[in-house]
Amino acid sequence: MQRVILRPSRPILTRLNTFRSYASVSAPKPTPGPTRPYHPEKISPPREQSWLTRKLKQSPTAMRVFLRVFGALGYGSSRQVAARRALALYEQLCAIRAEEDREFWDEECHLPPTFQSWFTVTNLHVWMLTTRLRALPAPHAQAHIQGLIDHFFLDVEDRIRHVLQPKPHPQQDPSTSPSRSAGRAPEALVSKQMKIFREQWAGLGFALDLALAQGSDAVLAAAMWRNLLGARGARGLALALAPMSPVPEFRRAAGRAREEVRDDGSGVHDFGPEDRDAYVRFPETMLVLTAYVRGEVARLAGIPDETIMATGAALGREAEGVAALRFNKISSAQVLLDELLDGS
Prior knowledge:
By secondary structure, the chain is mainly α. It has one domain. Helix content is 55%, strand content 1%. It is built from 16 helices and two strands. The chain has helices at residues 16-23, 40-43, 51-58, 60-72, 78-94, 97-100, 102-108, 115-133, 140-163, 178-182, 187-214, 217-227, 257-260, 282-301, 305-309, 333-343, and strands spanning 239-240, 249-250. The protein has a two-stranded antiparallel sheet. Strand 1 and strand 2 form a beta hairpin. Helix 1 (16-23) crosses helix 11. It starts with 15 loop residues before the first helix and ends with a helix.
């Protein structure tokens, strides 16, 4: 397999200690950000086609002329074709996975319906798809990976701007355009969030790459436990104390009590004493996640390069065939465990 070195067009990778911090045993660093409920299907409606697109689809002759002219300007170059293919792969394979398996992420993993949760799940699937794109022949691997990462972070930035957009004043004219009446998201806050999410992308990718290279399910499960599930339980299980006690609960890791009360903004918290039994199912959840990632990486590895790149597709139709590559749904913990026990 050829090694592909990703050089993002934006300053995504900063310092080597960023990678080390996410690959270590400790939990990810705090992630401040919006925590109100986030529903991607409501925030990102389907884009309306432009007038030019509608006219070109209605006239095959105009479409041929358009493609011939813009082909001479680089529209049909391998890099441009890879970028459009990567956009289809991202939109149809990765960006929708948090919503498609919302029940699993909510009930099994206890991830809150926040923007951070959407990013974490999407980031996981972007990484899985990247493992397959690395195996494409040069220079297609570099072009497809570059396009996938660029489209991912352009989408993240658009969604952040929408989430952080100030709400319009109640006394403003309702007939005013919502985008104008609500105002724009503060650039400083958007830049801060983008930096945090880039570091998360780099950290998750490094931790999962390490697990994949070592071929260890334990390392893979630990990486997902830290980066996806907030390392719940790393500070010990909470025990309820007497009603008259000055503190509501006790943990064995008393030396980290200062961090226990600090809200990282992600909405992912340790279970309290009343929900302590939820930890019992965590091994099953980690088994499901590990089996899912292993299975999907292996499935993608078995797909021919021509199918991944849509080799031979007509110019302008790079999105065709992407639906057949979609990730499988995550089975519930009990269903997957039953299958594993039956096969043993």
